[in-house]
Amino acid sequence: KNTGEAQPWDAYLQIENLWKAFGDFIALRDISLSISEGEFVCFLGPSGCGKTTLLRAIAGLDIQTRGAIEQAGKDISNLPPAERDFGIVFQSYALFPNLTIERNISFGLENAGLSKAAISARVKELLELVGLPDQGKKYPAQLSGGQQQRIALARAIAMSPGLLLLDEPLSALDAKVRVHLRHEVKDLQRKLGVTTIMVTHDQEEALSMADRIVVMNHGVIEQIGTPTDIYREPETLFVADFIGEMNKLSATVSGPGRVKIGSKEFVASGNGFSEGEDVIAAIRPEDIIPHGDTTTEHMAEPENAITCRITEMEFLGSFWRCRLESETLGSTELIADYSINAVRRLELAANKDLVIEIPSNRLKVFPR
Ligand code: ATP
Q: Boundaries of each ABC transporter domain copy (predicted)?
């Protein structure tokens, strides 16, 4: 439980130089990570990046090839799952089909040797906690997928574990239920204050739920940060590209903080590049500032402005996605996202010209 009191350990969960090999294949490569008590952390990455393997190592379901895991100041590296302190929810609800919902939840409590009355009270409390107070006598098959997953969650927290592990718990559910359950899971986690790790390949899920996101790729950690850090300040091109939309422009470094894209030099952000180096300059679609026709008034950085032609406008409900072409940029197409208000105010339409400004602090340079 998160009591807010100072604890004798620095981090609730400490992973140190963890490696995992399956035969010749290295699934985890020198992973180090600290998670604070009460934190909600998401492991995010494409299929096969190692996020499930890392979660399973924390649970003791797979034992690491090298490295150490500490939980609450105790080395758990070589403990079997039953001796570790966690509850887990899998993508497939994994409820016992022949047991009632009550029995599914009380299973672990019965093994812990609690009294009948204590078990019954705890089951009632848990069913209320997950919003299904009247479903205890039913069987799993009589519940919807979303309800079954709430029961799986109730079962996982029944013993008040110090750590809650969620392995793609929402990905088998349909879109509406999934979005709804995001809030419920997050609320529950906050209420309980339980340190939680969720594996997901859904960036929106990670951005909306996590206190911190661990972005993984090919068995390594690409970046650890808050959702806004990961989205706004990606440290690698992989992170920039994996999360959200990103314009990636071939560029050449032309001086300190300057890149040439097509035939024009832009001021950009990024250090440690040498002149003449081939790089990628990246900018999010919503960061490209529209300035209407051809005026250069009100521009913070006129040197980063170019005239484009709008080739296509796509209505995406809450905003417009514009495709832009410019002789200055050569064959590269830009995507820019504009609010409905901006489109109306600037009278943007296909085949019209548009002056855009690319803010230098949003134009990020990455190694090619
Ligand atoms: P997904 O979202 O597809 O589950 P993931 O990021 O969770 O992907 P892992 O399941 O951790 O990926 O797998 C990482 C890599 O390790 C994959 O290439 C996978 O094929 C491999 N792998 C996982 N388990 C084993 C195993 N038991 N034996 C051999 N290779 C394995």
A: 13-243
